[in-house]
Amino acid sequence: MAQWLVKAIIYLLIAMMALLVALVAFYWAPDRSVAELKQWQLPNSEFIDVQGMQAHVVRSDKCDVYRSQTTIDKAVNTGASLPEALVLLHGTSASLHTWQGWTKALSANYCVVSMDLPGFGLTGPYTDATTKYSSANYAKFVMQVLDHLNLNQVTKVTLAGNSLGGKVAWRTAALYPERIDKLILVDAVGYPATPKQVPMGFKLAKYPALTPILTRILPRDVVKKSVLSVYADDSKVDEALVDRYYDLTLRQGNRQALNRRLQETDSTSNQAQIKKLNLPTLIIWGVQDDLIPVENATLFHKDIANSQLKIFDNLGHVPHEEDPIATVNVVKDFLAQTE
Questions:
Q1: Rounded distance, CA 232 to CA 227, Å?
Q2: Running DSSP on this structure, what letter comes out for residue 108?
Q3: Domains parsed from the chain with CATH numbers
Q4: What is the pLDDT of residues 233-257, one digit of tens each?
Q5: Least confidently predicted of 40-49, 107-116, 145-154, 180-189
């Protein structure tokens, strides 16, 4: 090989290394502690011990009656009815904040509980590094949160979930049928799907070789494009919304947990459990969902006998967040019909 060619290759490699170092330096984004992310705690935020994690949970005022056995007994002894409980589960890379619109609209009449699932939000990753981010383990986590909040005192609860949270919701109903009264599935995972568009962060996280880099850098523009990809109306994605997704992704351990979750495979045989569900179910879907096609909504509707389907033509993968007013009105009707 000619000497000039060898030098050219060496110079090219040096230039590429320099560029890589510059990119890492420019997008360097170290993990942040929960204390450093305190701005994302809500006035009614709580941290409860679940499986050694400090799980971030929010519950509405109507849940106060469940705060102790004493208050529960007092309500029962005075003939007061215990408020119906509605539990909200977010999707991948989201957090309990995604439900704030629904929570505001429903808290006057229901005990509304939302939580950051393991690996997301302020809860952070499983403390046991061997625990898989499977729907069965998430269902177990949800049950333990409800037990901690004394919601095992309710005969059953209504469980709502979006995307990953939707799968956790129906899997929980399948695994713990004695605890779940109704389901609300919002653009839920459950059937095979070929996405029209996959968030950039999800694409990158699937490559194990990139993990050492991706857990140390985080281009904000990648987060913004990921949020834009799950909304139908780009004008609703403002900088404050992007800040929330960006900051909570930086929570210590969340990026590593996301890489693990996307590389682990959850059994596809679980799909058979959907047909065995026998409880009132509301299915909400955005036609503009580029991640899970609206055709999957009809599959849920067909396989769950006691189900209702509501389609929103102008919404995307997170309709509850993109238009909380329109979607929660459907929820109110469903809850009223099934009381």
A1: 10
A2: T
A3: 36-337 (3.40.50.1820)
A4: 999 999 999 999 999 999 999 999 9
A5: 145-154
